[in-house]
Amino acid sequence: MAMVNLIPDTGWQDTPSALIVAHPGHEVRLHGWLGLAQPRVLILSDGSGRLGPPRLSATTEYLASLEIEPGTIYGQYPDRELYQHILDHDFDFFIRLADELAKSIDDLGVRFIVGDAAEGYNPIHDICRLLIDASVEMLAHDRGQTPSFDYAVVNKPDDCPRELVDKSFWLQLDDDTFAGKLLAARTFYPELWEEFQNALDSSGTSPMKQYFDLSGQRNGVGFEAFRVECLRPCVPVSASNGKARSKPFYEVHGERQVAAGLYDQVIRYEEHIAPIAERLRRHVQ
Prior knowledge:
Layout: E1 17-21, H1 31-37, E2 40-45, H2 56-65, E3 70-77, H3 79-87, H4 91-107, E4 112-116, H5 123-143, E5 148-151, E6 169-172, H6 175-188, H7 190-200, H8 207-215, E7 228-233, H9 249-259, H10 269-284
Parallel strand pairs: 1-2, 1-4, 2-3, 4-5
Antiparallel strand pairs: 5-7, 6-7
Protein backbone atom coordinates (compact mmCIF):
# COMPACT_ATOMS: atom_id res chain seq x y z
CA MET A 1 0.00 0.00 0.00
CA ALA A 2 1.35 3.41 -0.96
CA MET A 3 1.79 5.78 1.95
CA VAL A 4 2.31 9.52 2.04
CA ASN A 5 3.76 10.30 5.45
CA LEU A 6 2.62 13.40 7.24
CA ILE A 7 5.72 15.07 8.62
CA PRO A 8 6.17 18.26 10.67
CA ASP A 9 7.31 20.39 7.71
CA THR A 10 4.07 19.83 5.76
CA GLY A 11 2.62 23.01 7.31
CA TRP A 12 -0.14 21.38 9.35
CA GLN A 13 0.25 23.75 12.28
CA ASP A 14 -0.22 26.68 9.89
CA THR A 15 -3.51 25.25 8.57
CA PRO A 16 -6.46 25.87 10.93
CA SER A 17 -7.99 22.42 11.37
CA ALA A 18 -10.85 20.81 13.23
CA LEU A 19 -11.50 17.27 14.43
CA ILE A 20 -15.23 16.55 14.80
CA VAL A 21 -16.21 13.36 16.62
CA ALA A 22 -19.34 11.77 18.01
CA HIS A 23 -17.93 10.59 21.35
CA PRO A 24 -15.06 11.43 23.69
CA GLY A 25 -12.26 8.93 23.16
CA HIS A 26 -12.42 8.78 19.38
CA GLU A 27 -9.71 11.41 19.10
CA VAL A 28 -6.99 9.13 20.49
CA ARG A 29 -7.18 7.14 17.24
CA LEU A 30 -5.50 10.14 15.58
CA HIS A 31 -2.95 10.84 18.32
CA GLY A 32 -0.13 11.37 15.82
CA TRP A 33 -2.10 13.74 13.60
CA LEU A 34 -3.36 15.66 16.65
CA GLY A 35 0.22 16.41 17.63
CA LEU A 36 1.07 17.67 14.14
CA ALA A 37 -2.07 19.64 13.29
CA GLN A 38 -3.16 20.88 16.75
CA PRO A 39 -6.80 21.01 15.58
CA ARG A 40 -9.71 22.37 17.54
CA VAL A 41 -11.74 19.39 18.76
CA LEU A 42 -15.54 19.37 18.60
CA ILE A 43 -17.56 16.57 20.21
CA LEU A 44 -21.30 15.86 19.97
CA SER A 45 -21.90 13.57 22.95
CA ASP A 46 -20.63 13.43 26.51
CA GLY A 47 -19.87 9.70 26.04
CA SER A 48 -22.19 8.52 28.79
CA GLY A 49 -23.74 5.74 26.72
CA ARG A 50 -26.93 4.11 27.96
CA LEU A 51 -26.32 4.43 31.70
CA GLY A 52 -22.62 5.17 32.16
CA PRO A 53 -20.83 8.27 33.45
CA PRO A 54 -19.69 10.95 30.98
CA ARG A 55 -16.18 10.57 29.53
CA LEU A 56 -15.75 14.23 28.65
CA SER A 57 -13.41 15.11 31.53
CA ALA A 58 -10.93 12.43 30.36
CA THR A 59 -10.89 13.99 26.91
CA THR A 60 -10.39 17.46 28.37
CA GLU A 61 -7.34 16.19 30.28
CA TYR A 62 -6.01 14.36 27.22
CA LEU A 63 -6.35 17.40 24.97
CA ALA A 64 -4.73 19.62 27.61
CA SER A 65 -1.74 17.25 27.67
CA LEU A 66 -1.34 17.96 23.93
CA GLU A 67 -2.04 21.69 24.37
CA ILE A 68 -5.13 21.39 22.17
CA GLU A 69 -8.23 23.51 22.72
CA PRO A 70 -11.82 22.26 22.59
CA GLY A 71 -14.25 23.81 20.14
CA THR A 72 -17.55 25.50 20.95
CA ILE A 73 -19.52 22.25 20.45
CA TYR A 74 -18.13 20.08 23.19
CA GLY A 75 -20.12 17.21 24.65
CA GLN A 76 -23.25 19.15 25.58
CA TYR A 77 -25.54 16.21 24.84
CA PRO A 78 -25.85 12.92 26.76
CA ASP A 79 -26.05 9.92 24.46
CA ARG A 80 -29.55 9.11 25.71
CA GLU A 81 -30.76 12.55 24.63
CA LEU A 82 -29.29 12.18 21.14
CA TYR A 83 -30.82 8.72 20.75
CA GLN A 84 -34.20 10.13 21.73
CA HIS A 85 -33.95 12.94 19.17
CA ILE A 86 -33.25 10.27 16.53
CA LEU A 87 -36.20 8.12 17.61
CA ASP A 88 -38.51 11.16 17.76
CA HIS A 89 -37.64 12.22 14.19
CA ASP A 90 -36.63 15.58 15.64
CA PHE A 91 -35.37 16.99 12.36
CA ASP A 92 -35.29 20.56 13.63
CA PHE A 93 -32.80 19.57 16.34
CA PHE A 94 -30.34 18.14 13.83
CA ILE A 95 -30.81 21.04 11.43
CA ARG A 96 -30.00 23.48 14.26
CA LEU A 97 -26.97 21.37 15.18
CA ALA A 98 -25.73 21.38 11.57
CA ASP A 99 -26.14 25.18 11.46
CA GLU A 100 -24.28 25.52 14.76
CA LEU A 101 -21.49 23.28 13.51
CA ALA A 102 -21.13 25.26 10.27
CA LYS A 103 -21.01 28.53 12.20
CA SER A 104 -18.40 27.15 14.60
CA ILE A 105 -16.20 25.95 11.72
CA ASP A 106 -16.51 29.31 10.03
CA ASP A 107 -15.87 31.33 13.21
CA LEU A 108 -12.73 29.28 13.90
CA GLY A 109 -11.46 29.88 10.38
CA VAL A 110 -11.10 26.13 9.84
CA ARG A 111 -9.58 25.15 6.49
CA PHE A 112 -9.20 21.40 6.98
CA ILE A 113 -11.79 19.11 8.58
CA VAL A 114 -11.43 15.55 9.88
CA GLY A 115 -14.35 13.66 11.38
CA ASP A 116 -15.85 10.29 12.21
CA ALA A 117 -16.63 7.89 9.39
CA ALA A 118 -20.09 6.38 8.97
CA GLU A 119 -19.46 2.67 9.52
CA GLY A 120 -22.90 1.46 10.60
CA TYR A 121 -21.53 0.66 14.06
CA ASN A 122 -23.28 3.35 16.11
CA PRO A 123 -26.05 5.70 14.92
CA ILE A 124 -24.49 8.73 16.63
CA HIS A 125 -21.24 8.11 14.71
CA ASP A 126 -23.21 8.08 11.46
CA ILE A 127 -25.24 11.15 12.44
CA CYS A 128 -21.96 12.93 13.18
CA ARG A 129 -20.83 12.24 9.61
CA LEU A 130 -24.14 13.54 8.21
CA LEU A 131 -23.79 16.75 10.23
CA ILE A 132 -20.20 17.28 9.08
CA ASP A 133 -21.14 16.74 5.43
CA ALA A 134 -24.09 19.14 5.71
CA SER A 135 -21.93 21.78 7.37
CA VAL A 136 -19.21 21.49 4.73
CA GLU A 137 -21.76 21.86 1.93
CA MET A 138 -23.37 24.89 3.59
CA LEU A 139 -20.00 26.59 3.97
CA ALA A 140 -19.13 25.82 0.34
CA HIS A 141 -21.92 28.14 -0.77
CA ASP A 142 -20.19 31.11 0.86
CA ARG A 143 -16.46 30.40 0.85
CA GLY A 144 -15.78 27.47 -1.44
CA GLN A 145 -15.11 23.85 -0.61
CA THR A 146 -13.30 23.01 2.63
CA PRO A 147 -11.19 19.82 2.44
CA SER A 148 -13.02 17.19 4.49
CA PHE A 149 -11.65 13.82 5.52
CA ASP A 150 -12.80 10.90 7.62
CA TYR A 151 -11.02 8.08 9.46
CA ALA A 152 -11.92 4.62 10.71
CA VAL A 153 -13.51 4.89 14.15
CA VAL A 154 -14.03 1.17 14.81
CA ASN A 155 -12.74 -0.52 11.67
CA LYS A 156 -9.08 -1.26 10.98
CA PRO A 157 -6.93 1.90 11.11
CA ASP A 158 -5.69 1.30 7.55
CA ASP A 159 -9.18 0.61 6.20
CA CYS A 160 -9.27 2.56 2.93
CA PRO A 161 -11.05 1.94 -0.39
CA ARG A 162 -8.58 1.11 -3.13
CA GLU A 163 -9.57 4.16 -5.18
CA LEU A 164 -8.77 6.49 -2.26
CA VAL A 165 -5.38 5.08 -1.23
CA ASP A 166 -3.32 7.56 -3.23
CA LYS A 167 -5.63 10.47 -2.34
CA SER A 168 -5.51 9.83 1.41
CA PHE A 169 -3.06 11.15 3.98
CA TRP A 170 -1.08 8.44 5.75
CA LEU A 171 0.93 8.77 8.92
CA GLN A 172 3.30 6.05 10.12
CA LEU A 173 4.06 6.80 13.78
CA ASP A 174 7.61 6.62 15.05
CA ASP A 175 8.32 4.57 18.17
CA ASP A 176 8.02 7.46 20.64
CA THR A 177 4.76 8.78 19.18
CA PHE A 178 3.29 5.28 18.97
CA ALA A 179 4.22 4.57 22.61
CA GLY A 180 2.62 7.88 23.59
CA LYS A 181 -0.56 6.92 21.74
CA LEU A 182 -0.88 3.59 23.54
CA LEU A 183 -0.08 5.23 26.88
CA ALA A 184 -2.75 7.90 26.30
CA ALA A 185 -5.36 5.26 25.46
CA ARG A 186 -4.56 3.26 28.62
CA THR A 187 -4.31 6.32 30.87
CA PHE A 188 -7.27 8.43 29.78
CA TYR A 189 -9.67 5.75 28.52
CA PRO A 190 -9.03 2.56 30.52
CA GLU A 191 -12.58 1.27 30.00
CA LEU A 192 -12.30 1.66 26.21
CA TRP A 193 -8.84 0.09 26.27
CA GLU A 194 -10.19 -2.93 28.15
CA GLU A 195 -13.18 -3.25 25.81
CA PHE A 196 -10.90 -3.18 22.78
CA GLN A 197 -8.49 -5.70 24.30
CA ASN A 198 -11.36 -8.08 25.05
CA ALA A 199 -12.76 -7.61 21.54
CA LEU A 200 -9.38 -8.48 20.02
CA ASP A 201 -9.18 -11.56 22.26
CA SER A 202 -12.77 -12.50 21.35
CA SER A 203 -13.78 -12.43 25.01
CA GLY A 204 -16.67 -10.72 26.75
CA THR A 205 -19.96 -9.58 25.26
CA SER A 206 -19.30 -5.93 24.38
CA PRO A 207 -20.83 -4.37 21.24
CA MET A 208 -17.33 -4.03 19.79
CA LYS A 209 -16.68 -7.76 20.23
CA GLN A 210 -20.01 -8.52 18.55
CA TYR A 211 -19.18 -6.13 15.71
CA PHE A 212 -15.80 -7.79 15.17
CA ASP A 213 -17.51 -11.20 15.14
CA LEU A 214 -19.96 -10.11 12.44
CA SER A 215 -17.67 -7.97 10.28
CA GLY A 216 -14.39 -9.87 10.44
CA GLN A 217 -12.62 -6.66 11.44
CA ARG A 218 -10.65 -8.55 14.09
CA ASN A 219 -8.61 -10.33 11.42
CA GLY A 220 -5.14 -8.88 11.20
CA VAL A 221 -5.73 -6.27 13.90
CA GLY A 222 -3.39 -5.98 16.85
CA PHE A 223 -2.10 -2.96 18.72
CA GLU A 224 0.70 -2.57 16.18
CA ALA A 225 -1.97 -1.72 13.58
CA PHE A 226 -2.56 1.58 15.39
CA ARG A 227 0.88 2.78 14.38
CA VAL A 228 -0.86 3.78 11.12
CA GLU A 229 -3.28 6.71 10.85
CA CYS A 230 -5.21 7.32 7.64
CA LEU A 231 -7.28 10.37 6.68
CA ARG A 232 -9.53 9.59 3.72
CA PRO A 233 -11.18 12.23 1.49
CA CYS A 234 -14.94 12.31 1.96
CA VAL A 235 -17.75 12.07 -0.51
CA PRO A 236 -20.64 13.73 1.35
CA VAL A 237 -23.41 11.26 2.16
CA SER A 238 -26.00 13.83 1.09
CA ALA A 239 -24.38 13.93 -2.36
CA SER A 240 -24.67 10.14 -2.77
CA ASN A 241 -27.72 7.93 -2.81
CA GLY A 242 -27.40 7.49 0.96
CA LYS A 243 -28.58 3.88 0.86
CA ALA A 244 -27.32 1.39 3.43
CA ARG A 245 -25.75 -1.57 1.62
CA SER A 246 -26.74 -4.02 4.37
CA LYS A 247 -28.34 -3.95 7.77
CA PRO A 248 -26.13 -1.74 9.99
CA PHE A 249 -24.63 -3.31 13.08
CA TYR A 250 -26.50 -0.83 15.30
CA GLU A 251 -29.78 -2.43 14.17
CA VAL A 252 -28.52 -5.92 15.04
CA HIS A 253 -27.27 -4.71 18.43
CA GLY A 254 -30.47 -2.76 19.04
CA GLU A 255 -32.60 -5.82 18.35
CA ARG A 256 -30.62 -7.76 20.94
CA GLN A 257 -30.98 -4.96 23.48
CA VAL A 258 -34.74 -4.77 22.93
CA ALA A 259 -35.02 -8.56 23.29
CA ALA A 260 -33.10 -8.28 26.58
CA GLY A 261 -35.49 -5.59 27.81
CA LEU A 262 -32.81 -2.88 27.89
CA TYR A 263 -34.23 -0.76 25.04
CA ASP A 264 -37.82 -0.07 24.06
CA GLN A 265 -37.18 0.55 20.38
CA VAL A 266 -34.56 -0.17 17.73
CA ILE A 267 -32.96 2.70 15.84
CA ARG A 268 -33.13 1.71 12.17
CA TYR A 269 -31.46 3.18 9.12
CA GLU A 270 -34.50 3.39 6.86
CA GLU A 271 -36.90 4.54 9.56
CA HIS A 272 -34.68 6.98 11.47
CA ILE A 273 -31.28 7.79 9.94
CA ALA A 274 -32.24 8.09 6.25
CA PRO A 275 -35.01 10.65 6.96
CA ILE A 276 -32.53 12.81 8.91
CA ALA A 277 -30.10 12.60 5.98
CA GLU A 278 -32.84 13.66 3.59
CA ARG A 279 -33.95 16.62 5.71
CA LEU A 280 -30.36 17.79 6.07
CA ARG A 281 -29.94 17.51 2.30
CA ARG A 282 -33.03 19.63 1.71
CA HIS A 283 -31.86 22.15 4.30
CA VAL A 284 -28.49 22.49 2.57
CA GLN A 285 -30.16 23.03 -0.79
